[in-house]
User: Which sequence fits this backbone?
């Protein structure tokens, strides 16, 4: 007798469906609203990783989706659990990451009374999901789960939220099985589009390609590299998607995001053809819509995106190709070289600009710690497939500018610029890739948003290394304050705990670094410890960016005022 003909609880049917869909790991904070699911998980082959806060659990599921291309699974309770988890859902939405969040819900006969912790999730999550629904009939769980997997991965990937009324989870019913989801559904390139692409290339002397967005696969990344090589195209990666193109490759020209290399910005402006693949052309990629001004660019624009609704949304492309990343990259890689030699100098100059920008040697900041030197050491020391995780803050500028991402999925960082992402992301990245070295970068502010997930790392035996770059403040905002309101510091100072003692209390290996030369041995000891580890790097608050000091920014702003 198949499971379909055996009466099962809603909770059991749900977990059986997840297993049938290939789910091996789920992240959660438990709640009494979904006890029937927790009970079914008791005997399932799914590894359940219990986080300390739903924001952490949701970031973990999102990072799992980023690292695997399969929806990350998260369970949280109603009301407070769901509101905590929303940060990860928003991240999955802006980062185009497949993810499914299951939320316990009040019983069906109590709905619309503002029962204990009741929220209408359709309204709450409406704007930040691809689909949000509630399963009111346990017999339809297989249908909803299948649709959730298809929707989260199809076209532009993103998050799905399913609410689970607690009495529905307790119902014992027979539920028909549906065929489980296998491969994401993606649009394909047409032969007419491909001819038009060839035509665009044949007119271009100074083309530039920008990669970004979600839905990439190992094959797509390999094929897009071949496309760039055959056409001699310099390549940039949009904000926090630097892992899409090998940063050591002679055609890699840098990242197109916050704090862009000014020479790269000039090059992009001077290009005669922009081929944008997967990136949305949002605020970060366009330099606040200034470097690239909507609606019509002076150069030709080929915009390739898996979501039809993104094409022509802000910028008017000369050629809009609604296509998945694999299909586009494969087709483009087959286009015969056109104008190859004419671009030789253009591509070489783009690389030279990048190498100069990426070299920390000329960068000196105040204080005994040079973050540029530390990043250069890490670049040489870490294996090529090591994964760098981070959240938001000025400390991340050092990582994005001086690290070289040398393989697909070596970066887990939020394009929606959320703080608190690095540590929980590292938990999920390490859980999905136990053999890889995983490093979580955080500022002192960023770390304190989800630092408690070090407890999760210790509990589940996930040894990654957290580097807390401590400048005693919410530095990014302080920098903006000094620019806009020089000398008027408001709400940006931080009184911090002893991060080393804190990490040790969690059971981590922990060390403090106050001089550049102490970093390498500390990092090696952290690796050798075999435990989750934390290194606090105390930097001079003046060292606010690789280019500017805090007082320099203040003086410049005061002189203007
Ligand atoms: C969840 C969240 N809250 C607030 C912000 C606004 N914000 C961006 S960077 C930043 C300060 C980060 O401080 P820290 O982690 O110490 O890094 P630093 O800039 O000092 O290097 C803040 C408050 C944000 N991006 N995300
Ligand atoms: Mg800070």
Assistant:
């Amino acid at each position: 007798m198949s499971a379909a003909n055996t009466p099962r609880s809603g909770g059991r049917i749900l977990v059986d469906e997840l297993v049938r869909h290939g789910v091996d790991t789920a992240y959660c904070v438990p709640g009494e609203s979904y006890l029937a699911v927790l009970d079914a998980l008791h005997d399932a082959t799914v590894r359940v990783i219990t986080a300390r806060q739903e924001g952490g659990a949701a970031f973990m599921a999102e990072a799992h989706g980023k690292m695997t291309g399969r929806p990350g699974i998260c369970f949280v309770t109603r009301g407070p659990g769901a509101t905590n988890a929303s940060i990860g859902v928003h991240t999955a939405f802006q980062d185009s990451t497949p993810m499914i969040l299951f939320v316990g819900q009040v019983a069906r006969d109590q709905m619309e009374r503002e029962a204990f912790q009741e929220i209408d999730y359709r309204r709450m999550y409406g704007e930040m999901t691809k689909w949000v629904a509630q399963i009111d009939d346990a017999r339809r769980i297989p249908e909803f789960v299948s649709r959730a997997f298809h929707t989260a991965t199809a076209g532009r990937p993103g998050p799905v939220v399913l609410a689970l009324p607690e009495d529905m989870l307790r119902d014992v019913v027979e539920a028909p099985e549906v065929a489980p989801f296998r491969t994401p559904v993606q649009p394909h390139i047409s032969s007419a589009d491909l001819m038009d692409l060839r035509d665009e290339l044949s007119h271009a002397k100074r083309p530039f390609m920008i990669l970004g967005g979600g839905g990439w696969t190992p094959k797509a990344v390999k094929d897009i590299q071949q496309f760039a090589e055959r056409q001699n195209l310099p390549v940039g990666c949009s904000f926090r998607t630097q892992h899409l193109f090998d940063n050591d490759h002679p055609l890699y020209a840098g990242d197109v995001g916050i704090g862009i290399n000014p020479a790269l910005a000039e090059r992009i402006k001077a290009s005669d053809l922009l081929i944008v693949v997967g990136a949305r052309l949002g605020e970060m990629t366009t330099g606040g819509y200034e470097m690239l001004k909507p609606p019509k660019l002076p150069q030709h624009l080929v915009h390739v995106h898996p979501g039809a609704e993104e094409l022509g949304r802000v910028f008017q492309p000369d050629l809009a190709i609604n296509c998945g990343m694999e299909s586009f990259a494969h087709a483009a890689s087959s286009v015969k070289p056109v104008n190859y030699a004419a671009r030789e100098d253009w591509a070489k100059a783009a690389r030279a600009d990048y190498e100069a920008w990426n070299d920390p040697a000329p960068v000196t900041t105040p204080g005994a710690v040079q973050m540029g030197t530390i990043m250069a050491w890490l670049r040489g020391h870490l294996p090529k497939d090591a994964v760098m995780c981070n959240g938001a803050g000025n400390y991340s500028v050092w990582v994005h500018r001086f690290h070289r991402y040398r393989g697909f999925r070596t970066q887990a960082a939020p394009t929606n610029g959320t703080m608190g992402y690095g540590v929980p992301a590292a938990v999920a990245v390490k859980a999905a890739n136990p053999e890889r070295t995983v490093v979580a970068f955080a500022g002192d502010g960023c770390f304190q948003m989800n630092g408690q997930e070090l407890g999760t790392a210790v509990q589940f035996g996930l040894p990654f290394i957290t580097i807390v770059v401590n400048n005693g403040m919410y530095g990014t905002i302080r920098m903006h304050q000094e620019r806009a309101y020089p000398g008027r510091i408001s709400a940006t100072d931080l009184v911090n705990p002893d991060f080393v003692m804190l990490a040790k209390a969690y059971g981590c290996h922990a060390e403090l670094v106050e001089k550049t030369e102490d970093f390498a041995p500390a990092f090696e000891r952290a690796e050798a410890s075999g435990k989750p580890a934390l290194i606090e790097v105390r930097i001079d608050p003046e060292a606010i960016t690789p280019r500017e000091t805090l007082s320099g920014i203040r003086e410049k702003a005061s002189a203007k005022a």
Q: What stands out?
A: The pocket of magnesium ion (ligand 2) is lined by residues 393, 443-445, 471, 473, 475 (CB under 6 Å). The chain has 22 helices and 20 strands. Residues 54-68 form the longest helix (15 residues). The first strand starts at residue 8 and ends at 9.
